Amino acid sequence: MGGDGLVPGSARLHLVDGLPLLRPDEQVFEAMIKGWRNQQLARNLSSGYVDDRERTVRAFTRHADAMPWQWTPQHVDEWSADLRAVHGCVRSTLRNYQGSVRQFCDFLTNPAYGWVDECLRHFGTHPV
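Given the sequence above, the corresponding structure tokens read:
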């Protein structure tokens, strides 16, 4: 926790209360990514490793054509099948990619960071 009582990566660090968002889906997603990045760096992970994880989550988001609060297990299954069958990813690479998405979801659903409440407030649903 920081000196202000906020957890690195929390929603309150990245979204200003009381201000309307112009493009809420894009702005909330970018704030989530930034928060996750800060949380990982606070855990002393290397910036290169954090960059790789971020690229993976962004690639999954593009493939799913959905934001994290809209993701379903089917999105992950289709993406995983595509990576293996079409792109020829080996199992270890695929597990690494899946692990990055899982860690991002763990971050988003952790109550300490406040993303569930933010998503409910903006979109009426939240990451699960």
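The chain has one domain: 22-123. Try to locate this feature in the token string yourself.
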